[in-house]
Amino acid sequence: MVHIGKYKLPEFVLRLSEKFLLDPLATWGTRMGLRLWGAEIGTGLKVSGRIRLRLQGDLRIGKHVRLRSGYSNYVGASEPIAIWVCPGGHVRIGDGCGLSNLTIVCRESIDILEGTLIGGGCRIYDNDFHQLDPEARLANQGNVASAPICIGPRAFVGGHCIVLKGVKIGEGAVIGAGSLVTKSVPPWEVWAGVPARYIKKVAKSEDVLTDLKTA
Q: What is the C-alpha R_g of the chain?
């Protein structure tokens, strides 16, 4: 049983309502909102939950992207997906990506490449938000440091990670849950920790299949 306020609903009732009512409405509403903001959207977008948008720059979403926001994914469910693209910023979400309850703030560029999955509660910031010098910061004067971020293709970022400016996460790389990624991660490696560091290599699918055949 699923509790919604003082009411109890069977699990299958909730799942059916999500599949045939709530998710289609969320997808339609998000598509309309994205178009009003001037974003480019590929076919096959699927959305669960409410999304917060502030698009003063460029947002491009590829084909068959999945966006799970709020309690559609219990990991990071306390906050919805939030995307803020500042003036002059560029965010690209590639084909087949899956994003859950993450926050993106972009001043320069953030690329999430094809087939990448990003877990609930993650934060991706390509800038420092404030100046380093205290006088400049208090007066809100001077440049704010920023640098492009690129994740993927086919990377996996576990829940509650923070990815900071200038980071490149290579193809097939895996970032362990709760990590703080401050420098670039080579392809096909597992990194984790605060700050994130190398853990081990990722076994490629063809290598696993070869091992099974020769076992």
A: 19
Q: What share of the chain is helix, strand, coil (3-state, %, to 5)?
A: 20, 35, 45
Architecture of domain 9-214: 3 Solenoid (2.160)
Give me the active site residues, please: 130
8 Å CB contact between 186 and 169: no
Report field, pTM of the whole predicted structure over 0.90 = no
Q: Which residues contact 60 (CB under 8 A, 6 or more apart)?
A: 39, 40, 90, 91, 92, 93
- Name beta bridge partners: 198: 191
Contacts of 41 (CB under 8 A, 6+ apart): 31, 34, 35, 61
Distance between CA 88 and CA 107 in Å, rounded? 7
User: How far apart are the C-alpha atoms of 91 and 71, rounded to whole Å?
Assistant: 24
Task: Note the residue count of the chain.
Answer: 215
At residue 151, what are phi and psi to the nearest 5 degrees?
Answer: -125, 125
Cα separation of 195 and 66, whole Å? 29
- The pLDDT score that the predictor gives to residue 215 is 42
Summarised one tens digit per residue, pLDDT across range 90-148 is 999 999 999 999 999 999 999 999 999 999 999 999 999 988 888 888 888 888 889 99
What is the CA angle 115-184-144, rounded to 5?
Answer: 105
**What does the alpha-carbon distance between residue 183 and residue 5 come to, in Å, rounded to a whole number?**
44
Domain boundaries, the chain: 9-214
